[in-house]
């Protein structure tokens, strides 16, 4: 089924964001694990898996619409410590949310309701799970202090 060129272009842009988010979460999960912050590492690794699932959904939809997936991720921003990691990952999620909303509006205009539905599920996951969790962690760091938070992330 031949898809709209505008939708295909937008899906490829979203794919670049998802691949970047996946790669950024990947390195961050490994950094956190190396630092002994196993609970945070496990959660960030979970986010990496979710981003991989999002990328897979986009790739499958692009192929279904007879497009070619562009497998080049957007740029990464690697954190230097745990708060910086969470802040940079949250910035990626905010970018993805903004781009997903715009893509959903485009799909509505282009009357591609199946793609819109796929993107709405991704938006829900991104807003309700990824961004919300990161916002909560940054709030906890402010509430209990960095040292207490770091201690809570160690596996004993």
TrEMBL record:
GO terms for biological process: intracellular iron ion homeostasis; iron ion transport. Keywords: Heme, Ion transport, Iron, Iron storage, Iron transport, Metal-binding, Oxidoreductase, Transport. One of its GO terms (cellular component) is cytosol. CDD domains: Bacterioferritin. SUPFAM superfamilies: Ferritin-like. Fe cation 3 binds at residues 46, 50. Fe cation 2 binds at residues 51, 93, 127, 130. Residues 1-145 form the Ferritin-like diiron domain. GO terms for molecular function: ferric iron binding; ferroxidase activity; heme binding. It catalyses: Fe(2+)(in) = Fe(2+)(out). Coiled coil: none annotated. This is Bacterioferritin. The lineage of its organism: Bacteria, Pseudomonadati, Pseudomonadota, Betaproteobacteria, Rhodocyclales.
